[in-house]
Amino acid sequence: MWKGRFQEETTDLMKRFGESISFDWRLFKHDIRASIAHARGLERAGILTAEEVAQISSGLREIEGEIAEGTFAFSVDLEDIHMNIEKALTNRIGPAGAKLHTARSRNDQVAVDMRLYAKETIDLIGGKIQELQRSLVGLSRRFPGAVLPGYTHLQRGQPVLLGHHLLAYVEMLERDRGRLLDARVRVDCMPLGSGALAGSTILIDREAVAKDLGFACVSRNSMDAVSDRDFMAEMLFALALLGTHLSRLSEDVILWVSAEFGFMSLSDAHTTGSSLMPQKKNPDAAELTRGKTGRLYGNLIALLTTLKGLPMTYNRDLQEDKERLFDSIDTAELCLSIFAEMMAEATVNEAAMREAASDPFLLATDLADYLVKAGVPFRQAHEVVGQLTAYSLEHEKAFPDMSLAEFQQFSEAFGEDVFAMLELDKALEARQAIGAPSPTRVRKELANWATALGMSD
């Protein structure tokens, strides 16, 4: 492609070092789609005839089919997906194929391919996120009465419904989906027509090409258009944060299925055993998801590091962007898919959860609230319940087993009705504020999410 300037052949080692066809082949659909739209733009500009555009379109569709079927022969000598397709097209249809690269560069060609790929994959990941949300909502609805301790510092804090706990992840996932959709707005801008960095003296109707490709707008600065990878960094950040949330969910599941907790069981189909210890049933899917989060972080940092010192405009360093995004998309898609499948088949040990949630100390804050309602300042109420807890531990006597006289040793504000509020289900139902975990509130939230996610009753 540059033989006019060079007198020596590129060495085999340099070819291996510089090639990207081993990974950017996956852009073939987007490259062909953009090339057909560009051909139509060249026709409008008077460079190509209608017959030539038909030849180009037919030839490209034939190549697309061969790549999809796995019969197309890629060449490392041609470096990338763009030149592999263009060379094959020219060999098949002749001069019309050689005209296709008029008024464009591989710089704006790869930029448009990556944006088309990004739009497609944002929609894909968004759908996978919703699959996991449906799985979590479905698990919550299958066990509507399951109550477990909520934890801070991994110490039992207050009782919550399982549905409330899982809905926290549904909310996180919705923010992840929102971030990707927000990034999509900035992805949806067409750079094709920017050339290598300063456009072309051959005037192409860029807005018509953008409409043909389904872009919302065209880029306003040719230098920025070919060097901009902000949209990829945004996507990688959104995927890295998605990984954070999946890793946290993984950690909960790993704890819950342990013998020490015993809150949940995963199906045999989503676990593995030990090559030595025959009794083992390991939550490998959750552990691998937790581990793969590091890949998502690493890809983000790798791209930011690549970008940070680049002068305007295109530099070959940018070839390093694709593998980062491809890997993060593949990783996120796989983690979301396996988690959605796994949680849909998971079962809950409601008895074990309730036993843990029945720890009387989980209602210590409720006792403080009781005193506040009786007119005791909160800080004083907090101290009283702390003293009461110390007494309970010292005398090995749970709150419900104490007498009223014992309660009143610490505050005269305690009355006979204190024992009613120490009942777990009543304590849960009392949490009626918006966002709180009362059964009534959780049922409404699950119903709202089921509707939003298109789930049937």
Distance between the termini: 60 Å
CATH C-level class of the largest domain is Mainly Alpha
Specify the number of helices. Answer: 19
Percent strand equals under 5%
User: Which structural class should the secondary elements be placed in?
Assistant: mainly alpha
Q: Order of strands in the sheet with the most strands?
A: 1-2
Number of separate domains: 3
Low-confidence stretches: none
CATH architecture label of the largest domain: Up-down Bundle
Query: What is the quaternary state of this protein?
Result: single chain
* SSE pattern: HHHHHHHEEHEHEHHEHHEHHHHHH
Radius of gyration: 30 Å
Question: Mean pLDDT, as a whole number?
Answer: 96
* Annotated CATH homologous superfamily of the largest domain: Fumarase/aspartase (Central domain)
The share of residues in helices is 55-70%
Instruction: State the major sheet.
Output: 2 strands, antiparallel
What is the tally of beta strands?
A: 6
Give the overall shape, derived from the CA principal axes.
elongated
Q: Which fold name corresponds to the CATH topology of the largest domain?
A: Fumarase C, Chain A, domain 2
